[in-house]
Structure formats: structure tokens, C-alpha cells
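We close this part of the discussion by returning to an individual protein. The amino acid sequence and the C-alpha cells for this protein are reproduced below:
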Amino acid sequence: MKNLKNLFLIFGVFTGLVACNDAIEIDQPGRLDADAAFQTVGDLRDGLFGVYDQFDLSPDIAFQSIFTDELSIGFDNGGQGLADYGFVLNAGSAASQVFWVNGYDQLNAASRLIEAAEIVEPEADEQGAYNQILGEAHALRAWGHFILLSYYSTDYTDDNALSIINLDFVPTIDQQLLRNTNGETFALIESDLARASSLISQDNGVTRINQDFITALRARIAAYREDYTTAATLSQQLINRYPLSNRAEYEAMFLDEADGEVIFKLERTNNDTYDGQGTTGSAFAGGWAGARFAFVDATLSGSPYFEMGRSLFNLLDPADVRYDVNVAPTSLIDPDYESNQNPALDILVIQKYQGSEGQPLMNDLKVFRASEMYLIRAEAAVAQGDLDLAASLLKDIRDAPIGEDTQQRTFASATEAYAAIFNERRVELCFEGHRYLDLKRLGSRANQGVLK
């Protein structure tokens, strides 16, 4: 009898375990797994657009502008972004969370698509499209890894330095992964870019990844790693292909009326995922890029809660179209701001993202432009000891938006040349999500820091 009771007890426990297991491993009706979601090349194409939709630069624009010296407190600020503005950054900060979470959302989406592609058998006439989709997914995954590494690595030039968690697969929910080294992450990035390069054959414009995107990303990575032989070669390839925009082209480029010198951008349009204000004053951001600075529009009456920092404004030449692109004509500019110290008389309204398609503050996000390639090439020239070439390249960048032949500078030292490049990057790439990383990697060589 006792044995029989024990038998029933064992059976009851086993039944309970099976029941509990069934409770957590429910295959719910209507659940769409990879086999059901991706059956054709058309399904993969739709999935690829979903991966693209994971990528957004508005958190980068917000954090890198607020935390550095691109901005000052706006007259309509109600407390937005003051922690970042005051250099408060720790593990619980929005930036610490958002770049990590968003980054792994991007990698997870790309890896899911890449794995799903393995179960799709393209028709003979679909092979090219299939390869293109798979190639773009690999390139997006490479880009996602680099974005993450750029924020979380302590030293881009040290392959043994701590990097991020490499994610070239779809993890299970119970996996606890360790961070890789820089060398391991860069090797994975290059593997994905090599795979992408072997698969991509189409050029579908500046809003889709092509071979030039791969070259531009490799050039930026090489500059960050201080591999200046590679950086010089790759940036020069793109300089040869993409001329700098003249005054009219430059202005049209930031109004989204023409692409000008854009190599790749993230398109933003009415009724898409990012059509909205998003979180203001925070790296959580989202929404229109211009909403990182103003509530309503890019004018004095548009409730700017952040304004352009004076130290940045002082670098802008009123004869330069970059002044017109970045400074709203409704701004109040006090020539005696240093002595007056009255913020009501000096309101520098930012209008880099003044809007398009009838929607204020909404513009495409420029990821790679020819101007950056000139700046990378100049940086490489200094590292290789050619200060005259660096000066010539910086002159080219100034001549195009000013529309006249400016005087070429002469540099007495590498530090002076790096400082000039550092400041030119500050002007050329302002509010595009570069300043924090430039300070991190170039500040010491330029002997410069934050100028609030």
C-alpha cells in the first residue's frame, strides 16, 4: 500500500511538472514564427524594411548635443535635459539605457532576418533580390555593432579593450552573455561587411545600403581605430565619387529637396514610425530630429527649449551657408553678449531641422556625407605627417559652402592641425550626432575639451 502511495506521488509530481512545462511552452494559435512570417523573397524584403526602421539617430543627436557644448539652455526650457546638460551620466541615465537597448533591438532584428533567409528558397529570377536583401541585413548588423562599440568601448585603438556583447545570432531568453573585446567585435563587423559586399549588387539610392555605404562605414571605423592608411584610401575613394555641395545644393540638402553630397541617410516622412515629437530633452528621443531643440518649430516663436551654444555659434561665418542652415533668421543676436550677460537679448535658434513635407522639425537624418570623408582624409593626412594636404582639404570644405576661394591655413604642428579639424568637424557635423564621440577620440590630440 505504501509503495502504491509512493507511485501515485511520483506520478502526481511528474504530471505536475509536465503541466507546468506545458503552461510556459504554449504554442498560441495565431503566433507568427519565422517559418510562417518569411516564406518568400517578398516577405524578406518587408522584413528588411522593418530592420531599417529600428535605426534612428535622434537619440544620438539629443545626447551628443546636450551632453557636450552644442547647446545652451533655451528660454522655453521647463527642465528638459538638465541632467545631461549638467554632465550627469551614470548607469541609470537615459543615454546609458537607450543606446544599449536600441542597439540590441537593431542587432536582434538583423540577425532574425539573416536566420530567416536560410529557410527561404528564392526562384531563379529572384536570386539577385535575395542576395541584395541579405547583404543589406549583414551591413545593418555591422553598423549596429559599430554604433554600440563607439559608445561603450573605452579605447577604439586597443583590440584588447572591453567592447560590447557580439550578437550575430538570435539568443534565447535565458542566455547570459559576456562582453567581447574590441578585436573580436571589429572582426565580426568586418566579417559582416565582407559578406554584405559580396552580396550587394544594386544601387537603390541614398536611403538604401549599397557599396558606398560599406566604404563609408569602413572609412569611419578606420579613423576611429587610427588605421590611417586604410582611412585615407577609403575616404579618398568617396571623395572622388561625391563632390562637395555648393551653397544652393547644401541648403537644399538640409531641406530634403536634394541629396547633394549625401552618401547615405535615414529617410523620415509623414505617417512613418518617427512622425511625432518624441521624448523631449532626453536621449530616449524618437520622433522629429528638430524636436530635440524646440517644441513647435525652428523659429523664435516656436518654443525653443534648447538654443545653439555660444562657443559653437562663434565658429560660424555669416558668409558661410552653414550659418544660414543652422541659425534661424528669427534669432536675436547680441554683439555685446559677453558684457551684457542678458540671455533675453541673445537667443540663437537652431534650424538645421526646420522641417520638410509640410511638417515642421521633421527632416531626413544624414548618416554619411562627403564632407565627413574630407575630414577623415584630413585627419589621416595629419597622422601621416602631411600638414599641407590637411590644410588643403579643410580649405575645400570651407570654399564650397562659402562659394569663394578662401585663404589656406598653414599649420605649425600636428596639434594645431588636429585642432583645426576638430573645430571644422564641430561646425560641419553639428547636431548630427558626432560631437561626444569626437571629444572622446580627438579631443586630447587637438588639446581641446568641452566649451559650454
Q: What stands out?
A: The mean pLDDT is 93. The first strand starts at residue 71 and ends at 73. Strands lie at 71-73, 262-266, 306-308, 355-356, 359-360, 365-369.
